[in-house]
Amino acid sequence: MKNRYELFVKVITTLNEAGVLQHLVLIGSWCLYVYRNYFNNAPEIPLLRTADIDFLIPRPLRMKGEVNVHEILKNLGFDEQFSSLTGQIKYVHPQLEVEFLTPELGKGNSRPFDFKRLHLSAQQLRYLTLLQQYTLTISVEGIQVIVPQPAAFVLHKFLLSVKRSDGIKQEKDLRTAIELGEFLLSQKDESQRLVSIFNSLPPKWRKVILSVTEKHAMPIYKTLIGGY
Predict the structure, then answer these.
(1) What does the pLDDT look like over 117-130, one tens digit per residue?
(2) CB of 157 within 8 A of CB of 173?
(3) CA 50, CA 180: separation in Å to the nearest integer?
(4) 189 pairs with which residues across the strands?
(5) Are 18 and 51 in contact (CB under 8 A)?
(6) 1-148: CATH, from 3.40.140, 3.40.190, 3.30.460, 1.10.287
(7) pLDDT for 94-115, tens place per residue?
(8) What CA–CA distance (Å, rounded) separates 114 from 95?
(9) Which H helix or E strand runs over 155?
(10) d(C-alpha 26, C-alpha 61), whole Å
């Protein structure tokens, strides 16, 4: 795990030096390590072993100039892995994989979206606008990293769990959302933020979250209903 963390830091350091990290949002399980540090190493925040670094590329991308992220990762020892079935591209290293995601807008398109200024493509997924809209900047080894607000991360995990066809991944999403969500309930500001972000969501999204939390996370469900 130490080697993975060192490579993770190397990736964000290099992207930061290239002037691109400030335009990306770190999402996925690595956020939990960032949150744990942010909340003074709170043991209630779960730490999941993961080999994936997921970056969200906002749309629209408000970045001037051009950065060849493909070459940056290649120089760090990552190989491009292309799926002819889905068009999805990952950057694979013996210790870690890096994947780029972006919100699926409008009627939706399952094909990757091409970011020419970054020299890469990103997989389009639903619900990522939630993570793009509510963010927080946290220092990691002296580097400013943008992550979703913890409350937004929790709500997104509940939404994502419904879309999962893989039972193991669904259980992982639910466990993460419940453990982090219940910790946030113990923090007054974070609990209020959880309700505030929930109330800002489209009615269909709120309905999904309430259905999932009523079944699996009653304390969170009661908090959301109470501030509805």
Answers:
(1) 999 999 999 899 99
(2) yes
(3) 17
(4) none
(5) no
(6) 3.30.460
(7) 999 999 999 998 776 678 899 9
(8) 26
(9) helix 150-163
(10) 15
